[in-house]
Amino acid sequence: MATRLRRKMDILRWVLKTKTYFSRNSPVFLLGKCYHFKSDEPSDQSPNGSCDDMTDESFSRNVEEFRKDFISRIWLTYREEFPQITGSVLTTDCGWGCTLRTGQMLLAQGLILHFLGRDWTWANAFVFENPESESWTSQTVKKLTASLETSLIGEREFRSQSTHPKSPIRNQETEESVEEQYHRRIISWFADSPFANFGLHRLIEYGKKSGKIAGDWYGPAVVAHLLRKAVEKARDPELQGITIYVAQDCTVYKSDVIDALCPFTDSEKTSVKSIIILIPVRLGGERTNMEYFEFVKGILSLDYCIGIIGGKPKQSYYFAGFQDDSLIYMDPHYCQSFVDVSVKDFPLESFHCPSPKKMSFKKMDPSCTIGLYCPDMQGFERAAEEITKILKLSKEKYPLFTFVNGHSRDFDFVVSPVQEEKTMFSEEEHKKLACFNNEDFVLL
Length: 444
What we know:
By secondary structure, the chain is α+β, with helices and mostly antiparallel strands. Helix content is 32%, strand content 15%. It is built from eleven helices and 15 strands. Strands 1, 2, 6, 8, 9, 10, 11, 13 and 14 form a nine-stranded mixed β-sheet that branches. Strands 3-4 form a two-stranded antiparallel ribbon. It has a two-stranded parallel ribbon with strand order 5-12. α1 packs antiparallel against α4, α3 (98-115) packs antiparallel against α5 (178-188) and α3 packs across α7. The longest helix is centred in the first third of the chain and has 19 residues, at 138-156. The chain starts with a helix and ends in an 8-residue tail after the last helix.
């Protein structure tokens, strides 16, 4: 109870900056794309290549393209007044669900790459008013605090109650383009509903198998396993062509990934699935080691990177890019009202962030999870080769993670993540998750 009271006090201290400044002298990278806001000199070299030189004519266009690209990413934040979470009286995740939200954002970007491609942008991205008007007002803070306090009081007084679930999310039947239909469908998979494949309710239900309950803290490594389980258990036919692999012991076992990509072939490895690879790592001990920043920039400059679940102590962010020594992120710490996505043409605006935020890399907490998307076998082989080269350029003696030939079972360390499980999590996974529960990464 004392911990939750401290969380409530932290809410009162939260302040959202109203402006984010970008330099005209340095390139900006967003999930593998480079944007330059300077027109009179050649662009700087990227960790993985270089941006094209800019001309006066292209300057304004490039700024607008960056804004549209950023706004088009799916933004998932705290919500309130959603259907009650089973086993509790919580109807909001304000104050405790930010790592789950950043995990959802990372998975959403993977699904965008899978169904729409990296070049997709939202046609209505510029419907927003001036993004600099966004701020935490005293009224917003009071509303958020009252919402959390009410939930905590209800949690103490909770008695066994019956729940009355809503109807399942229905398919959208609109005259929108195919791309916009997928856009809506992807968002609906993250709805705050017990029926949504990757919604908060479903992730919490899977978390119970690792000893977590609604209101608990979820670290970036634990969330990686919950996302894997959610994708594995998704029954939507359109989600059968994608899977998730979570690296164990900072090692990506290539044969395990290949088995996940080619689950029905033994003699001839022909990819029939796409894969999201999640790699939980630590960028140092108690504090982030600045020597790893070049590696992080190298990862974020790859077009198949889907971001990083990370943050700073007590706050989780979704890192999607960088400029100079600062990371660019989306912040889930904004309490919005529940949106019923089963309603035809439900509003999309609250699922897109109008303004990017920046944070110095040195403030980043060392615990994080890196996300990659590989559309097929060739994509995985390319990723393994390119990232191995980036790892070798690191000044650190020991790499953050490695790609290793063979199955994990060949090394007798962990259970292969692609084998059939009789329970939600294997005994070995329980041990892994218990270990991650002791991470120093404290999030609210």
